[in-house]
Fold each of these.
Amino acid sequence: FLYWQFEVNRMNKVILVTGANSGIGLALCERLLSVDTEGLQLCLACRNMRRAEAAHSALLTSHPKAQVALLQVDTSSISSVISAAQEVKKRYDRLDYLYLNAGIMPNPRFDVNAFFKGLFSRNVITMFATGEGILTQQDGVTPDGLQEVFMTNLFGHFLFVRELEPMLCRAGRTSQLVWTSSSNAHRSAFSLEDIQHKKGTQPYSSSKYASDLLSLTLNTHYNKQGLYSSVICPGFVMTNLTYNILPSFPAFLWTLFTPIFWLIRMFTNTFTLTPYNGAEVLFWLFKQKPESLDPYAKYHSLTSGLGNNYTQPRKMDIDLETSESLYEKLLQLEREVRKKLKDEQKESPP
Ligand SMILES: NC(=O)C1=CN([C@@H]2O[C@H](COP(=O)(O)OP(=O)(O)OC[C@H]3O[C@@H](n4cnc5c(N)ncnc54)[C@H](OP(=O)(O)O)[C@@H]3O)[C@@H](O)[C@H]2O)C=CC1
Ligand SMILES: CC(C)CCC[C@@H](C)[C@H]1CC[C@H]2C3=C(CC[C@]12C)[C@@]1(C)CCC(=O)C[C@@H]1CC3
């Protein structure tokens, strides 16, 4: 029996989701277990373990036979990412899907004037689809000295992937990385001279545009080794991240707005609104052959006016040259942080 159990575990696909304790990440886990309860090994990689345990219990209540594990990771901390990756290597002998979903939009500022101006302009649909021109954020600096949004949304995930490279690049097998990007990702918010976005007021947009670029370059470097990368946009979903945009609006007020949002959805199918709908594309990608995906496309979750979910690829505004330059800069930063970590460990051994 033990041998059989060992064989089953060995065969089961391993799926790791960062930011899986709420919102879109949790909805993805729920959807995956609904199609295959016993055949998957899910790993919920979360920062807040109290919320992670609640998510774990909720998943096991609806799928008592599921194999769901928890892993602590704070993607804004270099040491946390490295120890989490070491733990993954200890626990599993394969990693089939890595959903890089954790993300923050700290201290958002909603520009009411720009919003009302936008409402009566030709760009109204674009404004609702992307949030462009109406949102800025105030970023912070992590204890490692890096910009918080850049570290949480992009660089922490990049380090995680680099650490897990031996597990992800296995002969005769493919693995998939899926970056939760956004329609808010915009070239104008990103600069190769300031990849951390220290100077601007749109760190969120910059970090998401950087993930679009990074995914492309990862494909050029890793496809031969069986590792594929894609980017997605879940649409506009009501989650903790979006509730935080209008902090004076309690969550229930957002819910009161739902009929208005349904109305807007008649004009823009990007208003997916629920985490279940937002996770549509993440779930869809799980069923695709990675070789068939377009590295220049962002895959979008969309919901029609009648409430039907579907996935659509849209070409991204990216080019290989910029994505290669970003990759070089990230590798350089990786060398620097690893050196700093080594020096610190020499000074005070564990
Ligand atoms: N909602 C929307 O309309 C859209 C969302 N997105 C993206 O979707 C992703 C999921 O967000 P969403 O579900 O909406 O929002 P939630 O706030 O519900 O989820 C964000 C998740 O990220 C986790 N997280 C945040 N910071 C860290 C960190 N430092 N280390 C580890 N985990 C962390 C949170 O965990 P914790 O409990 O610890 O805070 C939480 O689980 C994000 O990347 C977001 O940018 C993209 C487009 C639109
Ligand atoms: C009636 C009012 C309360 C309506 C307010 C609507 C806006 C707050 C939203 C319209 C489009 C939304 C949007 C986002 C945030 C909230 C809106 C600006 C995102 C920027 C959230 C994060 C993303 O990654 C993309 C979203 C695009 C759409």
Amino acid sequence: MRSPTELTTWKKLADHQQEMNSIEMKSLFEADPKRAEKYTTHAAGWTLDYAKNRANEKTLSLLTDLVKEAGLEDTIKGMFSGAHINNTEDRSVLHIALRASQAQESLMVDGVNVLEEVRATLKQMEKFVAQLHSGEWKGHTGKTITDVVSIGIGGSYLGPKVVAEALTPYKKDDIKVHFVANIDGSDITGKLKQLNPETTVFVISSKTFGTLETLSNANAARDWFLSHGGSEASVSKHFAAVSSNVKKAVAFGMAKENIFPMWDWVGGRYSLWSAIGLPVAIAVGMDNFYELLDGAHQMDEHFRTAPFEENLPVIMGALGVWYINFHNAQTHALIPYDHYLRAMPAHIQQLDMESNGKANLLNGDGVETDTGPIIWGGAGTNGQHAYHQLLHQGTRLVPVDFIAPLASHNPIGEHHTQLFANCLSQSQALMVGKTLEQAEQELRDAGATTDQVAKIAPHKVIKGNRPSNTLLTDKMTPATVGALIALYEHRTFVQGTIWGINSFDQWGVELGKVLGTDIFNRLVSDSDNSALDASTQALIKAFKKAQA
Ligand SMILES: O=P(O)(O)OC[C@H]1O[C@](O)(CO)[C@@H](O)[C@@H]1O
């Protein structure tokens, strides 16, 4: 396996970066009146404006060469045909199949038409969702269900939670959906306080049905149910599961027909499109869930078929590599100007950092470049009064994705126009900045003395030339939200392909889990801890002292 630094285009990009160092984005706009038009592309209800990047035609052409040389054409083919591209776990990577089942008849993987399994599961979900909303599903005392609590963590929690929140305007009124993830008892305790055990159904989402946090919370929910009038025999009326471990779910007390399957070809952080998305389907209805899948499928088809020069995930992925590896950008920010999308950066953070936070090439050799950046962000305009200061004047380069709908679900007063104006002004300010001369003039115009001008003006200088993408859509709908998340999934894959890493395993999280069990055992016993490091010993002692 080659290191990305061995690619011919990598070296060309390094040279080209030197040329681009002296060129300001502002001048690229001045030199080419058609720049915005040229650097705008569309797919699946989204428009990407990537004109405000430190890139000219040569940059983009080299980046296209880079993805080609890195073998993206083949890795895309591999993904869509079910090849075992997750090489360390010897698995296919088929979240794309979860959203293809309505548009495509078959996708044969290892001798099985996986789309048939997907369709059967969707039918099972349809039935469950309909029974809950129609009132046909009754709790153990004969009452209809008013609340569903999804218990899971990681990919079995965050994606569905973020999408359910993004689709708030589409939520059904009759059933409230809640999410619990943390092993911190405050999470589930706070939720249970609001609930009536007679009218609550718990959906336990765990691919393995072996995750500590999820099982602890599931057991707490079961204990609460049993101690509030429920019986062992009625557990099946109040608990369902999404898992590939049917045996364990049955042992918990679930009825087989209320266990929704998962497959090893769906990675946790890519699983919201499977039955892991059941809480979303309950919250917004099955029709909207199908639209979500369809939006994602449209983005899949764009990614699979569009020329790289017009391909949103490819352009965004390659530009990301340009900044990470050739401009030393350590982080990448996502700033949605949409209240309902405010938690999206956290989902993309999980998606991208669990996928590309890797230091080994596919063959196990160490990678010689930086890989996945720190993904972060939050809602605009709130962030403008917090971390945007660093974006504009800090010493670090932070490429930003601005994400905004053209129309609001809540068009009151001038709110949406103000919101949109702020979104545009941020990307503009990042690019154009403010020169010393402008700062001085501004101060003089405001009546400052010569001394004041000299003292204050340097602090007002904003260097500018900071890159951003802007993603626009008409409105946040199930389809456009689906397409947006699929766009980021594929962007992550594009970057993983360029670096030559496996974006679909997550071995790094295992050590912490093993040590967590070991330390838990030490906290609840009189074990000899002298072999541990002094810091951990002292911290264990502090905990034990507090419990005594
Ligand atoms: O669905 P499960 O098996 O409970 O796993 C939860 C999460 O834990 C992880 O394995 C990482 O700890 C994620 O990849 C996964 O989404």
